[in-house]
Amino acid sequence: MPSPSPATSSPSTSSSAFPSDSADISRRRENLTSSELGQNKKKKYEVHAGRNRFGCGGRLVCSRSHGAFVVTVFLMIATLTLYFVFDAPFLWNISPAIPIVAAVVSITVISNFLATSFTDPGILPRVENLEIIEAERQENGVPSTSEIPTDPNTPRPRFRDVIINGEHVKMKYCTTCRLYRPPRCSHCAVCDNCVLMFDHHCPWVGNCIGLRNYNYFYRFVFCLSLLVIYLFACAVTHMSLLAQQMPFGEVIRKTPGSVVVILICFLTTWSIIGLSCFHTYLLCADLTTNEDLKGIYRKKHRSTPPASQIPGVPTKNPFYLGCFKSFASRLFKSRFPSVLDATGYVDHQPTIEIRVPVKHEKNDEKV
Amino acid sequence: MASKPAGSGGAVQNGTTTTTSTYSTNTDSKNAAFETQIIILNQCRKIFIQRDYTRGLDVQFEAEYPARLTEKVPRDVWENTITRINRIFADAEAITPQTIFETVLGCFTCYASYLVTKSTYCRKLDELQEFLDRENRDIYHHVGFHIRNPMERGLRVLEIAMLIRQGEIPHEEPEIQESSRPIRTI
């Protein structure tokens, strides 16, 4: 694959020290290696191994299972349409502010929803063979540990122990992605990817929730709970005001949409409010849903000897920095870059150019 | 600059082996004629610097001096490089008024602002790329190393390629062609 052009704009791709020359060089390298590399460049998302769907040239990332996602979209569109057709005109006459607030909150909800659904959640790309070979060579090459057998098929130890803020945490080896999962990273069974800071796979938004889209997700859930309550209140107000003027049967005949809005909101509001409270708690405690469900840091799950003596069993959440700091660090950090880099080009033969002083002896052919 | 034919992928000619004094020679000779060599990184041995998780999940790399750099790169030069890399990441991860403003602006514009502006993190990564290019060009290439951008490895490890020199066989084991190696199953 030719070396990436400077136009790809991703900081990760161009390792050439002299980009101005790279077009020329890549052309020559294409001649050299065209047989094994094929003619056209492929983007990384085209060769991605996980079960993801990509859109817009790799800019949009979502899961391949989308049944519940369609339901969510349908429910949101249906409820909002009914509200703006049946309730909003009536409420506009009372005060224009009421439907305007609803519109603003709806737009916030929709934008956060789309951002959650189509942002790369923090997928770790799988490790190439070359890196594994080289990493093993490095480990075995160090003189102090040279006694390790060098058979390439020896399985790796399943865990690697790291100490985070004084607590032992296990990094589990992921056999699919062939890497030691960083702390808080987990393999999503639905998408078949390791996701950084994995929270959960949310079928309703059709994506994993991880490091990169948790903040969108939290704002989505929070604003959605506000919106649901607001729509419910609006529809109830609308119907009760009408009911003062006419019998109830006529009210239902006049605004059947409000009845549907009330029903949908009433049925969904409990789970949504519950979810938004739960995630607020998780933010304050600096936990992920995954960790909370597994109960890693909970006292009652600990075995009888003091857990601090067993390596790999943390006694407290090592990431907790205090309620406010935890909250802020997950909502107000700068956007983490997509390490998947789905829009970048695959570079099977990365090359660099270096400048060396001219000497008179010639190089051997190395390829 | 004169470019070599593309076939000469494998070798760095610059046979410098030792420390500080060699640098100065190289920097002095900058005015002399240079040629560009193309090096295929897949053929090089690698040193991997692991992530340092001791202070949490923020991207930091282990500052320990890799044994393979001994006699090629002085310890303080390496420490300066790795500290700078870590500081760039620490700055990128920090919560500053600017990042808060970025986020709030994003919320209010339905994330349209994210499409047109670069995040602080991205700008820091550009700074990192620039820094690595400079360090590689000025120091590490001369002694046969190349630090790759950690984004290439998903910010899991920092990869240093040991550029293959002419006539030098990697000392631990003979050359292994990657294609002939079976795919590892674990």
UniProtKB/TrEMBL annotation, chain A:
Keywords: Acyltransferase, Lipoprotein, Membrane, Palmitate, Transferase, Transmembrane, Transmembrane helix. The chain crosses the membrane at residues 67-86, 98-118, 216-239, 259-284. The DHHC domain is required for palmitoyltransferase activity. InterPro entries: Palmitoyltrfase_DHHC, PFA4/ZDH16/20/ERF2-like. GO terms for molecular function: protein-cysteine S-palmitoyltransferase activity. Its main location: membrane. GO terms for biological process: protein targeting to membrane. Residues 170-294 form the Palmitoyltransferase DHHC domain. It is a multi-pass membrane protein. Residues 1-23 have a biased composition (Low complexity). GO terms for cellular component: endoplasmic reticulum; Golgi apparatus. The keyword Acyltransferase applies. Belongs to the DHHC palmitoyltransferase family. This is Palmitoyltransferase. It catalyses: L-cysteinyl-[protein] + hexadecanoyl-CoA = S-hexadecanoyl-L-cysteinyl-[protein] + CoA. PROSITE patterns: DHHC. Residues 1-38 are annotated as: Disordered. It is found in: Endomembrane system. Its EC number is 2.3.1.225.
From TrEMBL, chain B:
Residues 16-26 have a biased composition (Low complexity). The keyword rRNA-binding does not apply. The keyword Transferase does not apply. InterPro entries: Golgin_A_7/ERF4 (IPR019383), Ras_palmitoyltransferase (IPR051371). One of its GO terms (cellular component) is endoplasmic reticulum membrane. Pfam families: Erf4. It is a peripheral membrane protein. One of its GO terms (biological process) is protein targeting to membrane. Its main location: endoplasmic reticulum. Residues 47-159 form the Golgin subfamily A member 7/ERF4 domain. Keywords: Endoplasmic reticulum, Membrane. Residues 1-26 are annotated as: Disordered. It is found in: Endoplasmic reticulum membrane. PANTHER family: GOLGI AUTOANTIGEN, GOLGIN SUBFAMILY A, 7, GOLGIN SUBFAMILY A MEMBER 7_ERF4 DOMAIN-CONTAINING PROTEIN. Belongs to the ERF4 family. Interacts with ERF2. This is Ras modification protein ERF4. The gene is Cni-Y57G11C.33.
